[in-house]
Design a protein that fits this description.
alpha+beta; four-stranded antiparallel sheet; 4 strands; rod-shaped
């Protein structure tokens, strides 16, 4: 062979087995990470929507004032149910993927006064908004409260 290195073509069996092992290990790992990421994004969309609804209802209660807030608590179930379509567009993976779902948010507003909540002082009302919605078969809850004081 006059000092020339013989070049081989193809892969050895060991290289093929190693490549298959890497492929069989890494692909399920990345698919699992992607699925967990997608579920977390979907859940956070529901939490963000519920938080925004809480904030909106609390702002309306603050606008109603000390005397008007009691009337907000007495509404029918149909008035307290909001159905929103959430659309999530995920551009993280390079190829854009979109997922849409309808969620029904049911909210309730309670007004506590010094007679129902002893820690409150005269002239104070504690307004609590609670929102429930279904996410993957589980009922999730978000709650927010604010204090309204009588007077200017």
């Amino acid at each position: 062979m006059d000092g020339q290195i013989k070049r081989r073509f193809g892969l050895t069996l060991l290289e093929v087995v190693f490549a298959m092992f890497l492929f069989a290990t890494l692909v399920p790992l990345f698919v699992g990470i992607w699925i967990k990421h997608h579920r977390a994004v979907e859940k956070s969309a529901g939490v963000i929507a519920a938080t925004n609804i809480c904030q909106l209802i609390l702002e309306q209660a603050m606008e109603a004032g000390y005397d008007g807030v009691d009337g907000m608590a007495a509404t029918t179930l149909a008035d307290r149910t909001l159905t929103l379509r959430t659309t999530i567009t995920d551009d993280v993976t390079g190829t854009s993927s979109t997922h849409s779902s309808d969620k029904s948010f049911v909210w309730s507003l309670t007004v506590d006064t010094p007679t129902t909540e002893p820690s409150l002082r005269t002239g104070e009302k504690l307004i609590t908004v609670e929102i429930e919605w279904e996410e993957r078969g589980k009922t999730l809850t978000n709650r927010a409260s604010t204090l309204v004081v009588e007077g200017p």
